[in-house]
Design brief:
Length: about 250
């Protein structure tokens, strides 16, 4: 679950801050990623207020995402509406946000990424010499067409890895987005490795000068579960995958 937290500090302004990690208390979102299936009549997102304070909850959806590896957002209008876009969430209460598709054309051979952006805004009167902070969190929202081939939960095991000089290349041959979680390359942890878009490739200097580079990674499935680690050894321009290396 994604959480928001409230931090008072000495100033009289209202600031909006972005956070990427879970806070310890406050407003909690019932999930870290959401799948909108093509034939769905709508998607519900639960929001819980675990604090005694009241918060205004503001929600919007934007194209694409800011995660490393996310494809550039299209200029077209977002094909979803959120209801209610703004509501008061009293202390120790919960509510649901409803996401409904309004139309629009999206690729039918792959997933499309959107950002579900939810902000928790303090609704109470500011205390003198304190700072009330509205905290916004960006969550992955995937539109998934019907009939895509393959198992989205196993897509991370299908990634193909190769080298080009000091660059490591990762290719995703599947129609699903793959989150790179707990990525380790040449014995070093890669922070915020991001995602690999469907039928796309990324290049990075994760292996450095190492001639032979062992890469280990995990992923996160539709329900937020961390998948078991897999690894490959990359030492040249020939692409290797977990399946190919096991043969």
């Amino acid at each position: 679950m994604r959480k928001f937290n409230y931090f008072p500090v000495k100033t009289g302004l209202l600031m909006l801050m972005l956070i990427s990690s879970l806070a310890q208390a406050g407003v909690v979102i019932g999930g870290t990623r959401f799948i909108y299936a093509e034939k769905s009549q709508g998607l519900s997102v639960s929001v819980f207020n675990r604090s005694d304070e009241s918060w205004l909850v503001n929600t919007k959806i934007t194209n694409g995402g800011s995660w490393p590896g996310a494809e550039s957002a299209p200029a077209a209008e977002v094909p979803f509406i959120v209801t209610p876009p703004l509501f008061l969430l009293n202390g120790n209460h919960d509510n649901k946000i409803r996401i409904i598709r309004t139309g629009g054309e999206m690729p039918q051979d792959r997933e499309t990424l959107f950002t579900l952006s939810i902000a928790a805004i303090p609704s109470g009167k500011a205390v003198p010499n304190s700072l009330q902070m509205a905290i916004r969190s960006g969550l992955k929202l995937f539109y998934r067409p019907a009939g895509l081939k393959g198992n989205p939960e196993q897509a991370y095991t299908q990634l193909k890895w190769s080298r080009a000089g000091n660059q490591v290349i990762v290719e995703n041959p599947t129609p699903f987005y793959v989150t790179l979680f707990q990525l380790n390359a040449a014995g070093k942890t890669v922070d915020e490795a991001g995602i690999v878009a469907p039928f796309a490739r990324r290049t990075a200097q994760w292996c450095g000068e190492a001639t032979t580079c062992q890469i280990q990674w995990q992923s996160i499935n539709d329900y937020g579960r961390v998948m078991p680690p897999v690894s490959v050894t990359v030492n040249g321009s020939t692409a290797v995958s977990v399946a190919a290396q096991a043969k």
